[in-house]
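Following up on my earlier message about calcium ion. Here are the inputs again, as you asked, copied directly from the submission form:
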Amino acid sequence: MRLLLVEDDRLLGDALHAGLTRTGYAVDWVRDGEAASTSLADGGLDTYAAVVLDLGLPKRDGLEVLRSLRRRSLALPVLILTARDTIEDRIRGLDAGADDYLVKPFDLGELTARLRALVRRANGRPLPMIEIQGVALDPAAHTVRVDGTPVELSAKEFALLHVLMLNAGRVLSRTQLEQQLYSWDAEVGSNTVEVYIHHLRRKLGRDLIRTIRGVGYLIGQAPT
Ligand code: CA
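Thanks, got it. Here's what our run produced:
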């Protein structure tokens, strides 16, 4: 799952990038408002699961970035992360289209919990656990069980399964999966997704993930 992190403070940005990456996110980090808007142009809307947005930014204020994003996309979850902590600031941020608001200093555990909540709501899933065909995935605990038995997955296998399960009923192409799994700075091999799908089938059974020839991969029933 890929995040856009918009933060101009180098120390905080570094810590967030490291912390969110450790949690299993692929993180693209930009340091000013213009770069944020560029990242969110066109392709960005399908690429990111959520945006973590600072407000006090060089070149373009975070609220402006948010307003221009909301003119094009209502769906992409945005969490504002800022030192502006008056009640008026929070109201302005939420009214500009933010989905959540966290004031610095904050706890990384709370940030990631809020992101999980935003992502599942954006995908129309009120429940924290996702369960399909006997496979149960817990995004908070990072665990997967098949018919109640825990299965060990690597971080990337888990991320791939999570994206497919969140999008159950939708066919995702290899390119779409790569975009959601890898940040800009990651090296992606040409058959990486196929390899992970292969591993997942070996560990979870062959029937969960279906290949739709020439289109991509699917969990659950395809729309008819
Ligand atoms: Ca700032």
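One observation from looking it over: Residues 149 and 185 are 35 Å apart (CA to CA). Hope that helps, and feel free to reply on this thread.
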